Amino acid sequence: MIESLFLVVGFMSLVLLLFTNRFMLFGIVAVASFFGYFMLMDSGTWLTFVLFLIGILLLIAEVFIPDFGLIGIIGIGMIGFGYFSNRTDLWGSVMDLSLALIIAVVTAYILLRKGYRFVPGQKLILASSLQGQRGYSTGKNYQEYLLQRGHAVTVLRPAGKAEVNGTILDVVSDGKVIPEGTVIEVVKVEGIKIIVRELT
């Protein structure tokens, strides 16, 4: 039972890592939890733990790549090999992993409902967007909102909605969580990406 708890905490920490800016905190918690899980196993070894951890890291790296490629396949293979290679109770292993994944999915769903956004995916989309000055059409020009002030309609974590000049816009904070109702200013516009900061 304790082993399963370590695995659940590890996967929940990975979800929180991907949905927040606290990469270091939740990264450390995830590694420590997976380490505790593998070391509590009767047949757990450093090798299985390292293989599993490298597989997790490869899958996280795959998140920043726009298509499912070789890195993700290798990551899944290493996770499977590291997790199942030294387990004598195959059914128990499947149950532990299934429980951890279900709780992780539920955690991600709750975060999405509360307004959190998938941070790595968001960065990937915005970083790969085609800019108007490079000769591509980017739709509406949001430059008119640059240096304009408004207020946060929802909590920005860091993504959310803000009202600027009577228009509700999808915006991203400059890195910090901005509470609902806070006065904000548009500090940067990159195509459809509108970055705001809190005014104090």
Can you put this structure into words, describing what you see?
By secondary structure, the chain is α+β, with helices and mostly antiparallel strands. The chain has helices at 2-19, 23-40, 46-63, 70-84, 90-113, 119-127, and strands spanning 149-152, 159-164, 167-173, 183-190, 193-198. A 5-stranded mixed barrel has the order 1-2-3-5-4. A hairpin with a 2-residue loop joins β2 and β3. The longest helix is centred in the middle third of the chain and has 24 residues, at 90-113. It starts with a helix and ends with a strand. 24% of the residues are buried. Residues 121-138 have low confidence and may be disordered.
User: Cα-atom Rg, whole angstroms?
Assistant: 21 Å
- Give the mean pLDDT: 76
Q: Largest sheet at a glance?
A: 5 strands, mixed, barrel
Structural class: alpha+beta
Our measurement of the CA-to-CA distance between the termini, rounded to an integer number of angstroms, reads 48 Å
What's this entry about, in short?
The chain is of the alpha+beta class. 51% of the residues lie in helices and 16% in strands. The chain has a five-stranded mixed beta barrel with strand order 1-2-3-5-4.
Show the helix and strand layout.
Elements: H1 2-19, H2 23-40, H3 46-63, H4 70-84, H5 90-113, H6 119-127, E1 149-152, E2 159-164, E3 167-173, E4 183-190, E5 193-198
Parallel strand pairs: 3-5
Antiparallel strand pairs: 1-2, 1-4, 2-3, 4-5
Helix pairs in contact: 1-2, 1-5, 2-3, 3-4
List keywords for this structure.
single chain; 200 residues; alpha+beta; 51% helix; 16% strand; elongated
